[in-house]
Design goal:
Pfam families: RVT_3. GO terms for molecular function: nucleic acid binding; RNA-DNA hybrid ribonuclease activity. This is RNase H type-1 domain-containing protein. Residues 1-81 form the RNase H type-1 domain. It contains five helices and two strands. The protein is mostly helical. The chain has two domains: 2-66, no CATH class; 69-111, no CATH class. Helix 1 runs parallel beside helix 3 (46-57). It starts with a helix and ends with a helix.
Length: 112
């Protein structure tokens, strides 16, 4: 459920900034497969996955890729930061703690 909600939030955010070409990476294989298979999902997050699928159809390009958890350290650090700090949104600059993780993740994803 949390991964599906995060996907919907990300798609909403991308659309609100006018992004129309996206490559979405997630370490949740169930969500990625559901999106690759037309939004078909039978779990408790079925309605959210369906919303995400229809939102992705409005994009010029929406490519969904699975990445291993080791290549997704930025997402885990953002979740950790969100747990211990007040709600905020970063649009122009990411927190400095994320920059080394972004480099590491991009190297791991490109080597897969």
């Amino acid at each position: 459920m949390a991964e599906a909600l995060a996907l919907r939030f990300g798609l909403n955010l991308a659309q609100s900034y006018g992004c129309s070409r996206l490559v979405i990476n997630s370490d949740n294989i169930d969500v990625i497969q559901a999106m690759q298979e037309g939004g078909l999902f039978a779990g408790p997050a079925a309605a959210i996955i369906d919303d995400c699928y229809h939102m992705s159809r409005d994009l010029v390009i929406a490519q969904f890729e699975h990445c291993h958890r080791e290549a997704n350290s930025v997402a885990h650090e953002v979740a950790r930061l969100a747990r211990f700090s007040p709600p905020s949104t970063w649009f122009n600059e990411a927190p400095s703690a994320l920059l080394p993780l972004m480099v590491k993740d991009s190297l791991l994803v490109s080597s897969e």
